[in-house]
Amino acid sequence: MNIAARELTRAGCEAIAVAGMRAACDQRGVLHFPELDLLVVSDLHLEKGSSHARRGRLIPPYDTAATLSRLAEVVEDYQPRIIVSLGDSFHDGEGAARLPEPFRVSLMAMMAGRNWFWIAGNHDPDAPADLPGETVEELAVGGLVFRHEPSKGHAEGEIAGHLHPCARIVQRGRSVRRRCFASDGARLIMPAFGAFTGSLNVLDRAYKGMFRDGAPTAYMIGTSRVYPIAGSLLRPG
Amino acid sequence: MLPEPFVRWFAERGWSPRAHQLDLLAAAQQGNSVLLIAPTGAGKTLAGFLPALTDLAIRPKKRPGAAHRGVHTLYISPLKALAVDIERNLGKPVDEMSLPISMETRTGDTPQHKRTRQKLSPPDILLTTPEQLALLIASPDAERFFSDLRYIVLDELHSLVTSKRGHLLSLGLARLRAFVPDLQAIGLSATVAEPDELRRWLVRQGSSPSPLWGGSPEGRGGGDGLASTPTPTLRVDPPHKGEGTNNMAELITVSGGAKPEISILDSEEHVPWSGHSARYAIPDVYEAIRKHRTTLLFVNTRSQAELLFQELWRVNDDNLPIALHHGSLDVGQRRKVEKAMADNVLSAVVATSTLDLGIDWGDVDLVIHVGAPKGASRLAQRIGRANHRMDEPSRAILVPANRFEVLECRAALEANYLGAQDTPPLIEGALDVLAQHVLGCACGAAFDADELYDEVRGAAPYTGLDRESFDRVVDFVATGGYALRSYERYARIRKTKDGKWRVSHPRIAQQYRLNVGTIIEAPMLNVRYTRAKGKSGAGSAQSLALRGGPVLGKIEEYFVETLSIGDMFIFAGKVLRFEGIRENECYVSTGGGGNVLVPSYAGGKFPLSTYLAEQVRGMLADPARWTALPDQVSDWLRMQQMKSILPRREDLLVETFPRGERFYMVAYPFEGRLAHQTLGMLLTRRLERMGARPLGFVATDYSLAVWALGDLGRMFKAKKPSLAELFDEDMLGDDLEAWLADSWLLKRTFRNCAVIAGLIERRFPGQEKNGRQVTVSADLIYDVLRSHEPDHILLKATRADAASGLLDVRRLAEMLSRIRGRIVHKMLDQISPLAVPVMLEIGREPVNGEANDTLLMEAADLIEEAMGSA
C-alpha cells in the first residue's frame, strides 16, 4: 500500500482492493468504493427488537433507532451517489410495515437524492413496504456483484453479507473477538451492521471453500480503527 | 406430646429423644415457626421432621373414596443430592415404625411421568429444591395442590438465604403463606452470627416499609460463648409475633459438641511467599493420609483440586486409593467416588465445595484443608465432616499455601475455638428475581397487584421494597418496562376485567418454565476423549476427523478458547492434550510432559471474610501473638518491623518504593480480592488524572500493588495528591459510575440479571441455547439499553448486583470509612518483606480488563513486521 493511497482514506479506515477495485473498510462497519461513489452496508436487521417482542421476548425497542443513527452518520460523511443495503435490511417480512413513523422519515431523508438498492435477503425477500428504493436479487456494478448470500466456491468480485463474520485472536493469553470484513482479495463478506446482530467466526464450516488459501484476511473492527489480521493468526470459536 | 410408636422406637434402641428435638416439637405443636441452630451431627434432620412425622402418624386414615390428600410437608434443600440423602435416612425410622407416610423426591432429575403422577396423587412429604418449588407455584392448580400443607422444612438455611436462590425461595414461601395462612416453617441451620436475620426470614414480615437489614456488620461473629463447654447446651428464645416489622420465628439453639482438634501443619519445609499450590507440604500431607483411615482433603478451587490430586499421586508409592471430586467432573464419575466413599474403600478424596454441605459420607477420621479457609463458618462446616458424631472430637489439619495464609489459618483456628461464625451479610431482595416470580405468579393463578405487593413484602428480603419499584417490575414483566411504550400489543401479562394480571398466551408460561431458577453457569464445553491427533499450533478442529470417546466432564469455554492444538492441561486428574473444539465439545487425547497448564475457573474463589480479615490485622499488629506462628513466619514479620513498619489493627499501611524503571505503591487493606480489584481500578483512574501515569495493578486477598512511571512516594509526600485525597470515599461516586459504564464486569452481571428476569432465555424449547449466543446478544442489548434508557429497572438491578457481588463495593466503602485519617505512609528505598507476596503475583495474575485494542494492534503489527511495509 503506498502512502498516497493511505492518505485518501478516512481516519479509522483500512484501504483494500477487491477484485482490483479500490475500497475502504470503515471502522463503523461500512464499505466504500471511492471510484464508484458507492457505499455498502449489510444486515441492518431493522426492527429486530419488535420482531422478538412479538414472540414474548421483550428486548429493548431501541435497536432501530441505534442502527439508523449510526447509518445516518456514515451517509452524511460519505454523501455517496449509490447505497447498497446488502439484504436482511429488516429482521422480518413485516419489519418495514412496523417501522415507526419517525424512523421512516429519517430513513427517507437518507435515501433522498441517491440511488438506493435493497438487495433481497432471506429475512426480507420482498420489497420493504412503503419505502422508495429499488429491490433487486443482486446488483452488478463495475465488475463487482452485490448479493446477500455468498455463493459457494470462489466468486471473484462478489460482495456479500448474510454470515455476520467475526474473527478471534489470542494474544498474550487473552482472547479478543470482533466483527470483521472477511476478504481474500477476490471477494468480500461484510460484517453485520445492525445493533442487535450476533456474529459467526470466519473459521466456521459455513465459510468453507469460499476463500483462496482457506482462511481469509480478517479486517477486525476495533474501537477506533480496522486491524487487518492474517488468516494464519485466527482462531476458531 | 410424642405419639406411642415414637416412644417405643426410641426405647427399643435404648435412645431417648434429645432435648432440642422435643423442644422443637413442642414449639411446632403450639403453632409456631421455628429456627433450629445446631452443629453437624446433632440430629437436626430428625428434629426438623418430627412435627411432620408425629402429625402424620396420628392423622385419621383416609376414607375410601375420599379425594386425594395434598402434600402435608415440603422439604427444601439446596442440593439435589441432599434431598435424595434425606429420603434414604428418613425412610428408615418411618419403615421401622411402620408409619403410614409416603415420601418422595422431586428434582430436575425426576422423570416427567413421575412428576405428573405426583401432581395428581401427591406424597405426604415432598423433598425438593427451590427451583422445583417455583415451578409448582407457577402451575394453575398450585393453590389446590398446596391446600393441605402444614409444614415447610428448610434445610441448610444459612447457605440458602445469602444468594438470589434464597430470594426466590423467600418469595415462594410468601406465596405458600398466601395459600395457607397458618403454614409453619421450620428452618435448620448451622451456627450463624446473627440468627435473628434467619428468624425473620422464616415468618411473614409486617407491612410498614423499612430499610431491610438495618444492622451494621459490627457485632458479627460475636459468638455467645458457644463451644465453651464440651456438653451440648440448649437455649430457647420465644417467637415474636404481631403486626410490627419484627416478626421472628422461635429460636432453638444447640451449642457445643466436642471441641474439634485442629492444628496447622508445621512443616520443616520452606513456606512459600505466594501462590496457592501448597506443593511444599505434599510429603507431610501424604504422611497424614497414610496414618488415617479416611481423609477428606478440601481445597478452595477446582484448579487447586486438580493440582493437589496430581501431586499426591506423584508421591503415592503405596498406591493408596486416592480420588478426586469436583463439580466439573462427569456425574457418573462423581457418583462412583461418592459410592466408594460411603463404602469406606477410599483412603482419601480431594474435593471442593461440592461436598461442602451436610451430606454424610462414610467414616472420615481426618479433614485436611489445603489453602486458607477464607471464612470461619466455612471452616467449621468442613471440619464437621470428620466424625459425624457430636460427642467425639473432629480432627483437622490446616495447610496454608503461603505466608499470609499462615496468618489467616491461625486466625481461623482461633475463631473456630471461640465458636465465632460469619455468614455473608444478607442483601436486599434482587429485582430480577422478583420479575421472575411475578411472571411465575401470573402463570399460576392470576394475581391482583395490590395483594401481591403486600405478599411480597411479607418476604424478609423484600420488606423494604417500595411500591414504585414493584410497579416498575410488573411493568417490566408485562411490556419490558420501556419508556418508549411500543410493546403494549406484545404484552406477556395483561390486566383483565376483574383487575387481575394473567399470562397473555400459554407460550409465555412455557417459556417461563424453561427459564426458572437463578443459577447461571458460565458457558461450558464437554471434555471428550479422542484418538485423533491434531496438527500443533493454532488452527481449527474442523479439518480433523475427530472421533469421540467418553466424556470426562465440563470445562469453562473461556479457558478452552485460549488453548492451541497440542497444549497440555490438567483435568479430571489427568494430563490431557488439546485437540480442538467442535460444536460444544472440547476434544482431548492423553498427554504428557511439556508445559502443562491448569485451567483457572470462574468463581470458586471465596474472598477473605470481613471477620477473618480483622483477625489477621489484629495478629499482625500484636507481636505477642506471633509466638503461635512458625518461626519462618514470625521472622518475616520481625523483618518487616525492622525494614518498614507493621500497621496497627485499624490503620492502613501504604508503602512506596522504586524498583527497576517504575515506582510502586503497595497498600494492605485485607478486604479480599474483589474489593481490592475495585479499589485498584478506581485508584489507577485517579492516579492517571493526577498525572502519575499508572501502568497497572494487581490485587490479592490481603494487599494491592499499583505501579506507575511517576514517583508515587514523592507525590504523596508533597501532598500532590495526599494519600487522604487519593483514598477519599468520593471515589465511590463519579469515578465508580464512569468506570462501571463500560466495564466487562457490569456486562457479565447484566447477562445474568437479564436471564433471571426473563428478558433473554437460557434455552429454547427442545434445544439448549449455547453460551456464545447468549453472551453476544446480552452485551449488545446492554449497550443499546444503556445509551437509550440508563434508568431502566434491569440496569438498576444490575448495578445493585455488581455493587454487592463482583465489585464488593459495600466492603470497600466500609474500609474507606474505617481508614479515614488512619493512613500510614512509609517511603522506602526498596521492596519491604510484607510486599513480596503481592509483588510476586505481578505477571502471574492476569490483570483483568476489557479485551482491548492493544492486543489487536500487536497482532496487526506482527504482520506488518513480517511482511515489511510493501
UniProtKB/TrEMBL annotation, chain A:
Domain annotation Calcineurin-like phosphoesterase: ranges: 38-151
Top-level taxon: Bacteria
Coiled coil regions, renumbered to chain: none
Any Pfam family the entry gives: Metallophos
Protein name: Calcineurin-like phosphoesterase domain-containing protein
Lineage: Bacteria, Pseudomonadati, Pseudomonadota, Alphaproteobacteria, Hyphomicrobiales
